[in-house]
Write a structure and sequence with these properties.
single chain, alpha/beta, Rossmann fold, 7-stranded mixed beta sheet, 3-stranded antiparallel beta sheet, globular, binds S-adenosylmethionine
């Protein structure tokens, strides 16, 4: 029997058009991420042990962009911090204190447990990034967003304005994420094939997770929550950051990925693509 798009596990949607629609989609993403964060919980002890051993999860490109955090970063605020591994890595790398914000209750519980186990100078907030607490305004030397972040945000201008209000004058936004161009491809039996998806404005509702990321939620999607993703082309990111009053300092496109996004596709093919991009922007210093 044929299915309607809404019955399929993945179907295109229009980009969110109102604040209400943004809130509704983010609320659904909260449920979906609570389900997914269970897999992070299962490796909590292992993750704590790695941090205790001084193993940072920051990627080489992030290190190259950020330089020695000891020299300039008192407070780092990590937006969409998940279970806090990258957040606590920022502390290992030299930030004097770290703040993690995430919409998922389970992720924030995981992050609290890690922070306590390590006695780290870390504070955690469970909330939508767009509702980051006003108490944090103007306090960040660094606002950091790890991989797989901005595609979950349905209103990029509000996101960029939030970044702007959290930063101190002179503070820096750092973003490294999947390259949005990748959304036009999928892996099919070891080949990279074009899918019916627009680089410019693809928005999608889906259930289930990639097997290379959360295997236990990749098969039967029955009972799973809908999740909503929006692809933001590089130009949309740069312009949102600029409209929020930040000054672009760096934009890079990189061969190096950080997860198995196209399982089975040979490295010799992938090395011709920009798997990630990174951006740094600065809040103007106070006059
Ligand atoms: C792919 S994960 C980030 C993974 C992380 N970089 C890591 O290495 O573990 C995306 C995160 O964004 C969070 N998230 C999604 N929408 C959000 C929102 N509107 N506000 C805050 N967090 C959000 C999810 O709960 C999830 O933890």
């Amino acid at each position: 029997m044929a299915t309607t798009p809404e019955e399929d596990d993945e179907h295109p949607v229009e980009p969110a058009r109102s604040a209400e629609e943004v809130r509704t989609r983010h609320a659904s993403n909260r449920e979906a991420w609570n389900e997914a964060a269970g897999s992070y919980r299962r490796r909590l002890d292992q993750d704590i042990a790695a941090l205790r051993a001084g193993k940072s999860t920051l990627r080489p490109q992030e290190r190259a962009n950020l330089g020695d955090l000891r020299a300039w970063c008192r407070r780092a605020i990590h937006l969409q911090c998940a279970s806090g591994q990258d957040t606590l890595s920022l502390w290992l790398e030299g930030a004097a204190e770290v703040v993690g914000i995430d919409i998922s209750d389970v992720h924030i519980e995981n992050a609290c447990r890690k922070g306590e186990a390590l006695g780290a100078p870390a504070t955690w907030y469970r909330c939508d990034v767009l509702e980051a607490p006003a108490a944090l305004d103007g306090t960040a030397d660094l606002v950091y967003t790890g991989g797989g972040a901005i595609n979950w945000i349905q209103d990029l201008d509000s996101w960029a304005r939030t970044v702007g209000r959290l930063l101190k004058p002179g503070g820096v936004l750092h973003l490294l994420d999947d390259h949005p161009f990748l959304c036009v491809f999928e892996a099919d039996d070891g080949n990279l094939v074009l899918r019916d998806s627009s680089y410019l404005d693809a928005a999608v509702a889906s259930k289930g997770w990639p097997a290379s990321y959360i295997p236990e939620l990749s098969g039967d999607t029955h009972g799973q929550s809908w999740k909503y993703e929006q692809q933001w082309p590089i130009s949309a990111v740069v312009m949102a950051v600029q409209r929020a009053g930040l000054i672009l300092d760096f934009l890079g496109e990189h061969r190096e990925g950080y997860w198995d996004i196209f399982p089975g596709v040979p490295k010799s093919v992938l090395r011709n693509l920009p798997l990630t991009f990174s951006l740094m922007a600065r809040k103007p210093a106070a006059k």
